[in-house]
Amino acid sequence: MHKKWWHGKIAYQIYPKSFKDTNHDGIGDIRGIIEKLPYLKLLGIEILWISPVYVSPFVDQGYDIADYEHIDPIFGTDEDFDELIAKAKELGIHIIMDLVVNHCSSEHIWFKKALADKNSEYRDYFYFRKGNEDGTPPDNLRSYFGGSVWEKVKGEDNTYYLHYFAKEQPDLNWYNPKVREEIYAMMNRWLLRGISGFRVDAIMNIEKDLSFPGLEPDSDDGMCASAKMAHKLSSKIGHFLSEMKERTIDRYDAFSVGEAFGVDTSLYGQFIGDKGYFETIFDFKPRELVEKSVLVFKRRPVTFTMFRDATAKSQHSANNTGFLAPVMENHDEPRGISYYIPQMWENEQGAKAFGTYLLLLRGIPFIYQGQELGLKNPVFDSIDEIDDLATHDMYRSCLKYDLDKSLALKLCAHETRDNARVPMPWDDSEYAGFSDVSPWLKTYSFKDTLNVKAQLSDENSTFNYYRKLISLRKDEKYSQCLTYGDFIDDSTEDLTSAYFRVTENMRILVLTNLKDSSYCYRLKDGESNTLSLLLESKKNCVSTFGNEITLEKGCSAVFLIGK
Ligand code: NOJ
Ligand code: CA
Questions:
Q1: How far is the CA of 1 from the centre of ligand 1 (A)?
Q2: How far is the CA of 9 from the centre of ligand 2 (A)?
Q3: Residue 187 parent element (H or E)
């Protein structure tokens, strides 16, 4: 594998609306990010992914872009953004933008022109199609946010346009070379402006079967999730992705991380590594175990054991191809410690142990804002406290199936994307130091105990433990092994994990125990003679006797084997 500038770095995701408000409107902004750069530097972050800050009507929180070239005034000005790039650079932090090009906003000038004139060249920037003769839309795919992916064009006879997400997010036609040229030129302008790359949104959806055949229904609404179509077409998408890489990323030695759901591990060689379409892709294999249906009551919990096994399979497949980007959570997910590990560990201990497990995997870990504080899901007392359109769709579906309102709320609250979107708790004041006015989304429920200020001054806090983990990853002595070393799984017991990171001359062992009792790991003969403890998530949680390592419940530990 060729060495790249981003290897060995730790990335962090900011959801700007909820990070830090500086102009008293209850909405996070770019000056807020600038203000908190030293905090990120202290944590050890070197790559910063910022969720969309472009001009947008915010139907889907900025993932509906009306102008790719400019910053939305709610976040600040174009000059603020340039200042952010420059100040981050001074601190050795690379900024990466969100690239949302499967779709734009229905307020984008391209779409407005396409609607205004059937003969406009912009018509072919999107997918406009005639419906079937019986008046049904061209196919039966269900949008990610519920309902058909086809929206009828007002004032036109039996004509629809395609939107895999909200109807205000029309899909861009990648088969039109002009669209691709526009996208590449836009990306290159941003790269020239000083950003270091992109997180590439919803990208597996750009490939389409132009005959729009639809799929077998997966539920009694007669529709099928569009994710299934994206998955079906995933081996055909290469022609677009390699062109995009060649025309943009490669030319600037830039970084790209694909939001590439549904890529089989057998395809990793095409997606990541020296010949990959992306520098890396998020490892969503554990998340893919969650039932896709909007009917949340059908979802079964994904246990830590399931998470671990899916991750191990993914990691093994990537050993010889490239780097994955392990994630615990992001702005589309509930908090990881409230979702993937036993409820008894939905606390500081669980946050440290799960964090250790994830941050020492092979690849480039992404930390989502607040994860470093061990944030768990907030409490939602009413559906009205939730803003996310996807959750409202879930809630409506529950009610349609006659679920009791309080049960519907409980289920939806567990799943909602707003779990991760409530404002970052900087201190324990009324609005958690995020803003001095009531924020756009409710203040974090557990700010009194879980906040940055408290954790900075407590040497045993989750924040300070994350700092130790990151320092270990970057420690000159171990960074070669923790960056490039193979991942080898040696897990056997439920709710525990044992894996090695291995290079020719170093072996590092990472143990995690999320059971309700201690975990005993047996070393191979001779290994105990050269065993040394590098890090433990709780003081004195490890004891060794002969070939046995005993790890207390709710803990993780990291060992060097050999000199
Ligand atoms: C994935 C993004 O992460 C999510 O927030 C958004 O709703 C969809 N893509 C559509 O852009
Ligand atoms: Ca603001």
A1: 31
A2: 30
A3: helix 177-192
